[in-house]
C-alpha cells in the first residue's frame, strides 16, 4: 500500500476527538509503557499532555541515549541555486520574489565544499530551488562524483525526482535525501503552492517512497511548521515516518522540524507553532519512533537548540549559509530564510560538549551499516 492510501484512509476526525478527550490518566499510563502506539502518540500531542512535558522530556532523553548514545552529528548545507520555477508563498526563492538569483557552477560548488571540509564537516547537504534546466542530473552527478572522494556523506535537498534519476545520483555517491511535504493538509497545500511543478501534492508525497526503493541510506522528511494545524501535521509526520520505517527498514528515517522564519517572501505563519509545541512534538516523536533521527537546523536560535540537545536531537546543522556561494562570498543576498543560530561550528561544538554530548562529523552508524 502506498502512503497516499494510508493517508486517505486516516480518520482525522477520530484523531481530533482522541486528542480533545485525552485524560491525565491516559497520558500517565502511556508514559509508563515500553512501546507506544500511533493512538498513544496522538494523545502525547494533546493539550492535556502539555502538563507532562517534563516527564516526556525525561523519557525522550533516556530513549535517545539508549539508541544513539550521547552524540550529535553535525552537517552543513551547500546552496547550489536559488532559481526556482515554483511559487511557494512562504519561500524567499519563490519565482515571484524579486531579488538576486544565483546558480553556482560546478567549480564554485567544489570551492564551497572545500571550505566546509576545512571547517571539519564530512557530512553535507546539497540544496537548491527547482530549476531542472540548471540543476540537472548531469550537473549534480559531476558535483557528487568529485565531492564523494572527500566527504563521508552527501545528501540532497532538491526537488522531487523520478526513481531512475535517483538511481543515477545514488550510483555516484548520494546517500540521502531530504524532502519535506511542507504541509500534509491538502487544502492548505494547494493554497501555498499555487503554481509550478510543486503544486502536484501526490508526486511530492510519494518522493520518499521512490527514494526508498532506490536504497538511499538516509531519508529525511518533515512538515514546514507554521502552515498546517499543529496536531494534524504532527500526526501526519509521525504516520509518514512510521510507514517509511516499516517499508524501508534498511534506511535511517529522520524527521526535521523546520519552523517558518523570516524570508524575502514576508510570509506570516498560518498556524504559528510555539516553542513548547515544537518540544512536545519532538519528545512525542522520540517516544513513538525510538530509532528515528531527529534533525534541528539553524532556523532555530542557539539557546533553543542547546536546550533540545539532550531531549532527542540526533543531528544539527552548524554555521549554515542559505544562499548560493554564501560561505566564500559573505554577501548574504539571495538567502532562502534568515538563519537564527549564527554561531561558528566551533561554538556549536562547544555548546554540545557543555551539555555532556559529543559533536561528531562522521556517521559511524552508516559506516557500520554499509561495511
Ligand atoms: S520552497 Fe523550494 S520549491 Fe518552493 S519556492 Fe522555495 S526553493 Fe522553490
Task: Tell me about this structure.
The protein is α/β, with parallel strands linked by helices and 371 residues long. It has one domain (70-228, 250-271, 292-370): TIM Barrel (Alpha-Beta Barrel). It has 16 helices and 9 strands. An 8-stranded parallel beta barrel has the order 1-2-3-4-5-6-7-8. α6 (106-118) runs parallel beside α7 and α8 crosses α11. It is globular. The mean pLDDT is 94. The site of iron/sulfur cluster has 9 residues, from loops.
Please give the structural blueprint.
Blueprint: H1 3-9, H2 12-20, H3 24-31, H4 38-44, H5 53-68, E1 71-81, H6 106-118, E2 123-128, H7 137-147, E3 153-157, H8 163-172, E4 176-178, H9 186-192, H10 201-205, H11 207-214, E5 218-222, H12 230-247, E6 252-256, H13 275-288, E7 293-296, H14 302-308, E8 315-317, H15 345-354, E9 358-360, H16 364-370
Parallel strand pairs: 1-2, 1-8, 1-9, 2-3, 3-4, 4-5, 5-6, 6-7, 7-8
Bound molecules: iron/sulfur cluster (SF4).
What's the gyration radius in Å? 20 Å
Count of DSSP helices? 16
CATH topology: TIM Barrel
What can be said about the biggest beta sheet? 8 strands, parallel, barrel
**Shape assignment:** globular
Total number of beta strands: 9
Text of the CATH class: Alpha Beta
Q: How would you state the average pLDDT, rounded?
A: 94
* Strand proportion: 5-15%
What oligomeric arrangement do these chains adopt?
A: single chain
User: In CATH, what is the homologous superfamily?
Assistant: Aldolase class I
What is the CA–CA distance across the termini?
31 Å
CATH architecture: Alpha-Beta Barrel
Helix proportion of residues, in percent? 40-55%
What is the spatial order of strands in the main beta sheet?
1-2-3-4-5-6-7-8
Derived from helix and strand composition plus strand pairing, the structural class reads: alpha/beta
User: What hetero molecules are bound to the protein chains?
Assistant: iron/sulfur cluster
The overall number of domains is: 1
How are helices and strands ordered from N to C?
Answer: HHHHHEHEHEHEHHHEHEHEHEHEH
Amino acid at each position: 500500500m502506498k502512503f497516499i492510501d494510508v493517508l486517505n484512509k486516516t480518520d482525522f476526525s477520530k484523531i481530533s476527538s482522541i486528542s480533545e478527550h485525552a485524560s491525565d490518566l491516559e497520558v500517565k499510563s502511556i508514559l509508563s509503557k515500553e512501546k507506544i502506539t500511533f493512538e498513544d502518540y496522538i494523545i502525547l500531542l494533546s493539550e492535556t499532555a502539555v502538563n507532562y512535558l517534563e516527564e516526556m522530556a525525561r523519557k525522550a532523553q533516556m530513549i535517545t541515549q539508549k539508541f544513539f548514545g550521547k552524540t550529535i552529528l553535525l552537517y552543513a548545507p551547500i546552496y547550489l541555486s536559488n532559481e526556482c520555477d515554483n511559487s511557494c508563498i512562504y519561500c524567499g526563492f519563490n519565482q515571484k520574489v524579486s531579488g538576486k538569483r544565483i546558480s553556482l557552477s560546478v567549480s564554485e560548488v567544489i570551492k564551497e565544499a572545500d571550505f566546509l571540509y576545512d571547517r571539519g564537516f564530512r557530512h553535507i547537504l546539497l540544496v537548491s530551488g527547482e530549476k531542472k534546466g540548471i540543476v540537472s542530473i548531469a550537473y549534480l552527478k559531476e558535483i557528487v562524483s568529485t565531492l564523494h572522494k572527500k566527504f563521508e556523506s552527501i545528501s540532497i535537498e532538491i526537488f522531487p525526482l523520478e526513481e531512475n534519476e535517483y538511481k543515477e545520483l545514488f550510483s555516484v555517491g548520494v546517500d540521502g535525501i531530504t524532502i519535506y511535504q511542507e504541509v500534509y493538509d491538502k487544502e492548505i497545500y494547494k493554497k501555498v503552492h499555487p503554481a509550478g511543478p510543486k503544486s502536484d501534492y501526490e508526486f511530492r508525497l510519494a518522493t520518499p517512497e521512490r527514494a526508498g526503493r532506490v536504497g538511499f541510506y538516509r531519508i529525511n522528511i518533515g512538515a514546514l511548521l507554521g502552515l498546517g494545524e499543529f496536531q494534524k501535521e504532527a500526526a501526519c509526520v509521525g504516520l509518514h515516518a512510521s510507514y517509511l520505517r516499516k517499508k524501508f527498514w534498511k534506511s535511517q528515517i529522520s524527521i526535521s522540524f523546520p519552523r517558518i522564519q523570516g524570508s524575502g517572501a514576508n510570509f506570516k505563519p498560518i498556524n504559528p507553532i510555539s516553542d513548547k509545541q515544537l518540544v512536545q512534538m519532538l519528545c512525542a516523536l522520540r517516544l513513538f519512533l525510538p530509532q528515528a533521527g531527529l534533525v534541528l537546523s539553524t532556523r532555530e536560535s542557539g539557546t533553543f537548540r542547546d536546550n533540545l540537545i539532550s531531549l532527542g536531537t540526533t543531528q544539527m546543522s552548524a554555521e549554515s549559509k542559505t544562499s548560493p556561494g554564501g560561505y566564500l562570498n559573505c554577501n548574504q543576498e539571495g538567502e532562502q530564510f534568515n538563519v537564527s543560530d549564527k554561531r561558528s561550528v566551533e561554538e556549536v561544538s562547544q555548546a554540545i560538549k557543555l551539555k555532556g554530548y559529543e559533536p561528531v562529523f562522521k556517521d559511524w552508524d552508516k559506516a557500520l551499516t554499509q561495511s
